[in-house]
């Protein structure tokens, strides 16, 4: 199960990188076609969709790599038992918040699909398509938070499992 979850987080990170390249391509193409007085409708919107996809899909990968910003000043000043409890509490609260974001992101995709919502921009894209990356990224982030919470409650760390295994 550990390997499957690690592969899921890595795949989400790789997909986020692909969408970052998509942002680069859209912006570069937009600049290039503007120089030759050509207009491709929706390039700015697609750059935005790619940026949102990259952000949401990268959440779990960056979290599991320990790259999210955490204020550890309070944790460092606590005794080990209180530190563990506060850390577990923070992870539980984070998992609850991530569950809500995932739930409402998935609901948004389903509602957009049901009502045939389209972008108001020049691209007229069916909104459920770019919203899907937000929902998938949110669900994977929730899984990562739940994974980390369970590991911490068991006295383990689920973070950096691949790197930890390589260094040991």
Summarize this structure as a short list of keywords or feature phrases.
mainly alpha; 168 residues
Short description:
The protein is mainly α.
Describe the structure.
With about 170 residues, the chain is mainly α. It is built from 6 helices and no strands. It has helices spanning about 1-35, 45-65, 75, 80-115, 130-155, 160-165. Helix 1 (about 1-35) packs antiparallel against helix 5, helix 2 (about 45-65) runs parallel beside helix 5 and helix 4 (about 80-115) runs antiparallel to helix 5 (about 130-155). The relative contact order is 0.16. Residues about 160-168 have low confidence and may be disordered.
> Oligomeric status of the shown chains?
single chain
Structural class: mainly alpha
Supply the number of helical segments. 6
The count of β-strands is 0
Radius of gyration equals 19 Å
End-to-end Cα distance, whole Å, is 20 Å
How much of the polypeptide forms β-strand, as a percent range?
Answer: under 5%
